[in-house]
Specification:
single chain; alpha/beta; Quinone Oxidoreductase, Chain A, domain 1; Rossmann fold; 2 domains; 15 strands; globular
Length: about 325
């Protein structure tokens, strides 16, 4: 079968399209005819050797996809051949067929396109786990979201709006402002050209941020650590800026705020039943129009490397989707 292969951890430029043997599902897995796969920042990090795990090479990148079940393992009870599904895995999505654990797969509602279905579990799953489970954000609270036009960031803006939060969106270029405003941001800060401290203090009347949702890391996170409200929750989600930040621990002490780690993928592995329920919730929300994933563009599988380069260069708003069938 056709698949994109990573032979060395040297980045998107060395990905190659090739033929590999069809995978076989383990007892707790399903085998999926992949129709669409989304391209994430994590995928780009993984093929560049910059993620915290390194699969044995060669491997097929792709953390999230959607398609039709063609076979199931002996212990699978929730799915049968012919079911439309969305699924996630650490690798395997950029191929004509992939395997995924039953616990990390969810039925795709009728009427939901494969392209949209391939963009929910990672983006909205991370946002939901962070805002609902970890931060326990309450209606009316102020959330500041960095990298707000990216896949996870835009999902957090969209979900924050749905939860009744006051969403402040942090972006790195003005051309992203219209999109984040359309998705529910009440205030927008371009932290590349504006004084973040001054804007946050002005927006919050000096009270600070109730919930900090940071995708960027580095100096942005360090500034956020000084802008939290009393009893706030500051969440490191990722470090797309390339620098893991450090903060003086007297900062959370002085305002009794919490620094809460968010690694949704590890949580889904450890608490698979809870993650499966969350996925069911997200698909219901998608079917009812409560959330609306944004697709920047749709490309053929052959252009996976171009898609990853666009993600790395931060020219993507929402998600790029690879159309495979």
């Amino acid at each position: 079968m056709k698949a994109v292969l990573c032979h060395t951890f040297t980045g998107p430029g060395d990905l190659r399209l090739g033929e590999i043997a069809e995978p076989r599902p383990a007892a707790d897995e399903i085998l999926v005819d992949v129709h669409a796969a989304s391209v994430s920042f994590m995928d780009q990090l993984l093929v560049s050797g910059l993620y915290q795990m390194r699969p044995p090479t060669p491997f097929v990148p792709g953390t999230e996809a959607s398609g039709v079940v063609v076979a199931v393992g002996d212990k699978v009870t929730r799915f049968a051949p012919g079911d439309r599904v969305a699924c996630s895995s650490w690798i395997g999505g950029y191929a004509e067929r992939m395997t995924a654990k039953e616990s990390k797969s969810v039925r795709l509602p009728d009427g939901v396109a494969f392209e949209a279905g391939a963009t929910v579990l990672h983006n909205y799953g991370t946002a939901y786990y962070a805002l609902v489970d970890r931060a326990r954000a309450e209606r009316g609270e102020t959330v500041f979201i960095t990298g707000a036009a990216g896949g996870v960031g835009l999902a957090a803006v969209d979900l924050g709006r749905h939860l009744g939060l006051r969403v402040v969106a942090g972006i790195g270029s003005d051309d992203k402002a219209a999109l984040v405003r359309d998705y529910g941001a009440s205030e927008i800060i371009n932290y590349r050209r504006e004084d973040l401290r001054h804007r946050i203090k002005t927006i919050t009347g000096g009270d600070g941020i109730d919930v900090g949702f940071d995708n960027v890391g580095g100096a942005i996170f360090e500034q956020m650590a000084r802008l939290m409200a009393w009893d706030g929750r500051l969440m490191p989600i990722g470090f797309t800026g390339g620098e893991i930040p450090q903060i003086p621990m007297n900062l959370p002490l002085l305002k009794n705020y919490s620094v809460i780690g968010v690694f949704a993928g590890a949580w889904a592995e450890k608490f698979s039943a809870e993650a499966a329920r969350m996925n069911d919730t997200l698909m219901r929300m998608l079917a009812e129009g409560q959330i609306r994933p944004h697709i920047d563009r749709i490309l053929p599988l052959e252009e996976a490397a171009e898609a990853m380069r666009a993600v790395a260069n931060r020219t993507v708003q929402g998600r790029i989707v690879l159309k495979i069938r």
